[in-house]
Amino acid sequence: MKASVIGGGSWGSAFALHLGKLDIKTRLWIREKDVYEETLQFKENRAFLPGFVFPPTVTFFHNMEEAVASSDVVFIAVPSKFCRQIYEKLAAHLSSNHKIVSLTKGIEEGSLKRMSEVMEEVFSPFFTPHIAVLSGPSFAKEVVENHPTAVVLASKEEDLAKKAQHLISSPTFRTYTSDDIAGVELAGSIKNVIAIAAGISDAFLFGSNSVAALVTRGIAEMTRLGLKLGAKMETFAGLAGIGDLVLTCTGKLSRNRYIGLEMGRGKNLPEIVSAIKMVAEGVTTTLSVHQLAEREKVEMPICEQIYQVLYKNKDPRTALQNLMARKLKSEYTAQQEEINET
Predict the structure, then answer these.
(1) Got the DSSP string for 22-55?
(2) Are 219 and 242 in contact, with CB atoms under 8 Å apart?
(3) Is 191 a catalytic site residue?
(4) 143 lies in which domain range?
(5) pLDDT by residue (tens digit) across 145-160?
(6) Which residue in 21, 99, 191, 228 is the catalytic one?
(7) Domain termination residue (choose one: 155, 179, 203)
């Protein structure tokens, strides 16, 4: 079995390194010419994953056609805002023989489509795509450091899910399967918005009570929107939902939590984003989730307040006060209404 990983950021590099350690011949495509040349020279992505040397089973490419040549499975790990243009370039070099796995956690701005939906739209005129998505609590650095990690891989094709599951699993990387692509992708995207709220909370030096409330009510918001969009409720109680949400809201390696921390400390969004080398998906996802919630008429108060902070210059402390001052209600009323509707 031969694999390709499209995207030389921290997660793409970490995943290629993980596959290489499993003795899978892996081709890593790196977009930036300077990063590619440095990685080729030192066998280490010093820009995005410093300190970790790739095994000989991983080779590096700047040419996309060469990167996917002769591969059986293609993992795509690029930020959501670049996905469509990458898919369009890939379409000429892929076929129905390829298995395609999305590693991206985001929602396309404008179309409000999930990455698998964008794939279907782009690839279907050329070939019948076989698609899976991977998500779950998995900081890149901890994966390559062999910290025990569990993720979920979802596909409409059971055979594809099981084959990919066995391909990528290891003693330190456990993969579960699911058929709920919508739930896995939505959970993996929306948790980044809640993590920004958690970062703001931490900036104000609030304690564990506050983060626990954000995580719990965040899951409620994710679930409400997910059910409206055809996802399964149990997915949000699993690795892609509560698992990834806890990690992203509390982990020091979380870029989205960092965005919230800096916002809570008084910095503006352009200043924060320009200082981060890697993409924090929660910023663009906040806008997409706001638009989805409006379209589907789903109440998402935490996500709405983060939208107001990021895009309407609302003071973060005022946003918190508005959340706490909302009309008192039963904990499960809104959730039950969504279940009854579906």
Answers:
(1) TT-EEEEE-SSHHHHHHHHHHSB-TTTSTT-BPP
(2) yes
(3) yes
(4) 2-179
(5) 999 999 999 999 999 9
(6) 191
(7) 179
